[in-house]
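Notes from hallway chat w/ T.B., transcribed later so I don't forget. T.B. wanted the structure written out for a chain they're using in a teaching module, and asked if we could keep both sequence and structure tokens in one place. Agreed to drop them here.
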Amino acid sequence: QVQLVESGGGLVQAGASLRLSCAASGPTFRPYSMAWFRQAPGKERAFVATIVWSTGNTAYVDSVKGRFTISRDSAKNTVYLQMNNLKPEDTALYYCTYRVTLSTSYDNWGQGTQVTVSS
């Protein structure tokens, strides 16, 4: 069973940067893609960004394009989310997840890391 451990969250002021990390542990970790989701208070969990493990291709929700960058280190089984120019509306619990093929769902989640952005 693959375990996902997120880190790097914190309390920052608007305009600041944070870098989230998600390390995957377990035998033969070979995802098709990894992704970051976030859940703000009172809202459903929502997609933020994804990266195809083999190619490095990425996709983002419109609200973070140009500010967030997802990347991965295959040797470390780690995915990152560099978040720049943070805004109060980015405040949420951030989760990482993966799927093993393009057609499978995201059903393995980390515990989340809290990002709070003050105005």
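Follow-up for T.B.: The mean pLDDT is 96. Might be a good example for the class.
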